[in-house]
Amino acid sequence: MIWLSLLLACVTPQRVERSQTRTVLGAAYLSEGNPSDAIATLEEATKLNPRNGDAWEKLALAYYAKNATEKAEHAFEKAIRLNPTKAEYRNNHGLMLLDQGQVDKAIEEFSLALTDLTYRNTALVLNNLGQAYYQNKDYETSVKTLTLAVNRAPNLCQARFNRAFSYQALNKPELALQDFEEVIELCGDVAIGAYFHAAEIMLDMQDMVGACNNLRTVIREAGRNTLGRRAESLHNERCR
After folding, report:
1. Under a CB-based contact definition with an 8 Å cutoff, are residues 141 and 107 in contact?
2. pLDDT digit string (tens) for the chain, length 240 residues
């Protein structure tokens, strides 16, 4: 521990500033889909200032983008140890855990993120927590949590989209359809999945005109990707 104290004592204001600059650059590489350069840059940032929590957190994301899961977990632990209450760290760590199927741990992280009253994107955390409850098959709690997200951010399409699946799991197709249609209205051409899932519900309700119109929209907008091919197959089966 003595060597660590000596190292931290040597972190001059100039090194702190350089570390911050490298963090900003590393984050930019990461957002551009270049995790390799992000890792090199962010590792430099952490060496310049080992107490730079943002650098550790962004480094964790970069490692995970390169499938270096153990290194990502270690970097997240560093960031969280430096700032245990920072919602962004907890939320992103939760997303990584959720992606790995560690749902209970993800729920714990999202819940801790919500205790940071300074965080402005609470609706995003609530959306992630609601999705985690959905994956845990706790559909009632998922709906309640996602409703809180929608109430905080009515234009957050992802929360409405996720809530629709929870309504479907609870056998409430009318409410699910309402959410999918809200997503279509709010997000338009970026909501192709909502068109498709709304069409599935409409078919069950025997609303053939609405369902087939939605499927044609998906076919037109999605092209030959997986969703487009599914829509084309369903259209050919039910709309002719």
Report:
1. no
2. 444 444 455 779 999 999 999 999 999 999 999 999 999 999 999 999 999 999 999 999 999 999 999 999 999 999 999 999 999 999 999 999 999 999 999 999 999 999 999 999 999 999 999 999 999 999 999 999 999 999 999 999 999 999 999 999 999 999 999 999 999 999 876 689 999 999 999 999 999 999 999 999 999 998 889 999 999 999 999 997
Q: Nearest CA to 201 among 210, 190, 192?
A: 210
For the 12-83 domain, the top CATH level (class) is mainly alpha
pTM of the model: 0.90
Domain ranges of the chain: 12-83
CA separation for the pair 69, 211 (Å, rounded): 42
Place of tokens 């970026």: 190
The answer for residues whose C-beta is within 8 angstroms of residue 224's C-beta and 6 or more apart is none
In the chain, what's the furthest Cα-to-Cα distance? Answer: 77
Q: Tell the residue number behind the tokens 């990461």, with chain if given.
A: 30
As a whole number of angstroms, the distance between CA 223 and CA 235 comes to: 14
Phi, psi dihedral angles at 18 (to 5 degrees): -65, -40
Residue 224: other Cβ atoms inside 10 A? 9
**Ramachandran quadrant class, 156 (left: phi over 0; alpha: psi -120 to 50; beta: rest):** beta
Measured between alpha carbons, how far is 56 from 86 in angstroms, rounded to an integer?
13
Amino acid at residue number 196: F
The structure tokens listed for 166 are 């929870």
- Cα separation, 12 vs 19, whole angstroms: 11
